[in-house]
Known about the structure:
Elements lengths: L2 E6 L3 E5 L2 H8 L8 E6 L2 H14 L17 E4 L2 E5 L3 E4 L3 H9 L5 E4 L2 E4 L2 H10 L1 E2 L7 E4 H10 L20 H11 L2 H4 L2 H20 L3 H21 L4 H12 L4 E4 L2 E4 L3
Antiparallel strand pairs: 1-2, 1-3, 4-5, 5-6, 6-10, 7-8, 9-10, 11-12
Helix pairs in contact: 6-9, 8-9
Amino acid sequence: MTYAIYHIPGVKIGVTNNIKHRVEDQQGYNEDEYEILEMSDDIDYISKRELYLQERHGYRVDRQLYKDLFNNNFIELNNMNINVTEMTSTFPCPVNKLKGQLMDNIGMSWQTPFGDVYISTGSIKWIMDNVKSSQYTSNRCYVYNKSFARWFDNNSTVSKDKNCNTQCDDCGDELFDCIRAWANERGLYDKGDPKTQYIKLMEETGEIGRAILKNDTEQIIDGIGDAVVVLTNLAELCGVPIEECIQEAYNVISKRTGKMINGTFVKDNQ
């Protein structure tokens, strides 16, 4: 089988084994609107070359090699079969069971006519906000591929690989995703309980208090870090990302006025 790396100037670089179907029929470009950069029968070479050319030309670099993507219409994700058509990606379960299925398959990806998509904690939230039940059966639900792919275009810094090592030092802005992946791998979201996490949070804040009284900087750092991890998991178990909680809090405090009294900020009466 021959694979082609194609270039749509200003849009993307991709790989396909059927250039006319992929670029013209599915994506709607004319023959004079794209170019073929390279062709090869070696899928290993072409997969690595695609990423190199994407980076070289300044496009978003795919998180998974082409050879590792599933190119048929059904993508097997553990016990899921996602049916990909030109317009939609359909999940073989009702909406109320979808989040658990997606959490079990973080890191998996598939191709749509509008770009590659994958499952991460961030994209799971988008899916759950936009998923629709099938009009033919309540046991299936779907998202529109074009909207899903555009979400990735607008969130290009989202990492696909959320299986961070617990000693990861470079998660950066995606650290909450690393925490959630760590917790999900250990079954915390399947078997955990918000009440238990709340009790654990009280224990961690107690540790912080003792560390402050001892002026123990190392233990203060450890305690605050542990408390943030617990809060992240508590938020997830309650069905809301911690980022949303923080954003809501900031939206409120950013508008507050007040003054410092005895070491405490006291807000003005509204």
